[in-house]
C-alpha cells in the first residue's frame, strides 16, 4: 500500500501516513511557470495499491486538477489499484439542477475522477449520500460523527443536550448524531422566506429552553446559516449553542463572522487545511479525522469491513 499526497492538505496526508506507519510516496506535485500542474512520482508504484489524499477544497479547481493528474500519473505507472481519498469533495453542493439550464457539477466531477483512472473513491460526510451513486466505482462515505460524539460526550456530556439541525435537509445527519449521544432529543431550524427580498424567519421546531444545543452540519461556508441559527436558538431560550461541522470551508469573512457570533464554540475537522485565521480564532477548535481515514484505508487495503467502523 502507498499513500500519495497532493498539496491541498499535506498535514492531513502526513497524519494519515503516520497512522498507517508508512512514509508518504516520494513524488513532486508542482507547477510550471504558467500554473500548469506537473506530477512526477520518484519511486516504483507498479502493482501497488495507491491512495491519493487530496481534498478538493479552495482553490477547488486547482486542487481537483492536481488530483486528476496524480491519478493519471499513477495509472500510467501501472499502479494496481488507485483510490481517490477526497475527505472534502468540492462541488458536492451542485448535486441537482436548481433551475433550468444549470449543470450537475458534482456528477461531472465524479466522471472526471473516474475517467482519470481512479478505481475507488473514499470521502467523508458527502453533502448528500446519493452522491455515492454519481460514481460507477466503489465509493465509501465515512462519517465524522463518531469523532464528534466522543468530543461532545467529553466536553458537554454532563449537560442537558439537544442536537439541532440548522435546516430541514440536515435532519438525517442530526438524528444519527443524537443516536450516538444516548438518544439526545432533536430540534430543527426551519428557515422561511415568505417572499423574495424579505428577510429570513427562523422557526425552531422543538423545545430548546435551557438546553445545551449542538448544531450539526456538513459544511460551514460563509457562516451565515450557523450564526443565524445560533442566535435564533438563544432567542428561544437555549442555554448555549455549539456547532460541530465536518468541513470548515470558511470562505471570505466567515471566521470573523463566527468570532462575533453567539456561538459558544465552532468545532470543525481537518478534512480541509485550516487557514491561519481559523487556527488563531478563539472560537474555532479542530478535531482530526486522520485516524478515521487511516483506519478506513487500512481496511480497504486488507479487504475487511469499512462499515463496521461505525457500528
Ligand atoms: C447547505 O446545504 C449546507 O449543508 C450548509 O448548510 C451550507 O453550505 C452552509 O453555508 P453557509 O455557511 O454559507 O451559510
TrEMBL record:
What class does this enzyme belong to in the EC scheme?
A: transferase
GO terms of molecular function: ATP binding; kinase activity; magnesium ion binding; ribose phosphate diphosphokinase activity
| Active-site residue list | 191
Against InterPro entries, the record matches this protein to: PRib_PP_synth_CS, Pribosyltran_N, PRTase-like, PRTase_dom, Rib-P_diPkinase, Rib-P_diPkinase_bac
Keywords for this protein = ATP-binding, Cytoplasm, Kinase, Magnesium, Metal-binding, Nucleotide biosynthesis, Nucleotide-binding, Transferase
Reaction equations catalysed: D-ribose 5-phosphate + ATP = 5-phospho-alpha-D-ribose 1-diphosphate + AMP + H(+)
Give any Pfam family that matches: Pribosyl_synth
Q: Which GO terms describe its biological process?
A: 5-phosphoribose 1-diphosphate biosynthetic process; purine nucleotide biosynthetic process; ribonucleoside monophosphate biosynthetic process
Residue ranges of domain Ribose-phosphate pyrophosphokinase N-terminal in the record: 1-117
Q: How is the cofactor bound?
A: Binds 2 Mg(2+) ions per subunit.
**What protein does this entry describe?**
Ribose-phosphate pyrophosphokinase
Q: Which organism is it from?
A: Novosphingobium marinum
Amino acid at each position: 500500500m502507498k499513500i500519495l499526497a497532493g498539496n491541498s492538505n499535506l498535514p492531513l496526508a502526513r497524519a494519515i501516513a503516520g497512522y498507517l506507519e508508512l512514509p508518504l510516496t516520494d513524488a513532486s506535485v508542482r507547477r510550471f511557470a504558467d500554473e500548469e500542474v506537473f506530477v512526477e512520482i520518484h519511486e516504483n508504484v507498479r502493482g501497488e495499491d495507491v491512495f491519493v489524499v487530496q481534498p478538493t477544497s479552495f482553490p477547488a479547481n486547482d486542487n481537483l486538477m492536481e488530483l486528476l493528474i496524480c491519478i493519471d500519473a499513477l495509472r500510467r505507472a501501472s499502479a494496481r489499484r488507485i483510490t481517490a481519498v477526497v475527505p472534502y469533495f468540492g462541488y458536492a453542493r451542485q448535486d441537482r439542477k436548481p433551475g433550468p439550464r444549470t449543470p450537475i457539477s458534482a456528477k461531472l466531477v465524479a466522471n472526471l475522477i473516474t475517467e482519470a483512472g481512479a478505481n475507488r473513491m473514499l470521502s467523508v460526510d458527502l453533502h448528500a449520500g446519493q452522491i455515492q451513486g454519481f460514481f460507477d466505482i466503489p465509493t465509501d462515505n465515512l462519517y465524522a460523527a463518531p469523532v464528534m460524539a466522543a468530543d461532545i460526550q467529553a466536553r458537554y456530556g454532563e449537560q442537558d443536550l439537544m442536537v439541532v439541525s440548522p435546516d430541514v435537509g440536515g435532519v438525517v445527519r442530526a438524528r444519527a448524531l443524537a443516536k450516538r449521544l444516548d438518544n439526545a432529543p432533536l430540534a430543527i431550524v426551519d428557515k422561511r422566506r415568505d417572499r423574495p427580498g424579505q428577510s429570513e424567519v427562523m422557526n425552531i421546531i422543538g423545545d430548546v429552553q435551557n438546553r445545551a444545543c449542538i448544531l450539526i452540519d456538513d459544511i460551514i461556508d460563509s457562516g451565515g446559516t450557523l450564526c443565524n441559527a445560533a442566535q435564533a436558538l438563544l432567542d428561544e431560550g437555549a442555554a448555549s449553542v455549539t456547532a460541530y461541522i465536518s468541513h470548515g470551508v470558511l470562505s471570505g469573512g466567515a471566521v470573523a463572522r463566527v468570532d462575533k457570533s453567539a456561538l459558544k464554540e465552532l468545532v470543525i475537522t481537518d478534512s480541509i487545511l485550516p487557514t491561519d485565521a481559523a487556527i488563531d480564532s478563539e472560537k474555532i477548535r479542530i478535531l482530526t479525522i486522520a485516524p478515521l481515514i487511516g483506519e478506513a484505508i487500512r481496511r480497504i487495503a486488507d479487504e475487511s469491513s469499512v462499515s463496521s467502523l461505525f457500528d
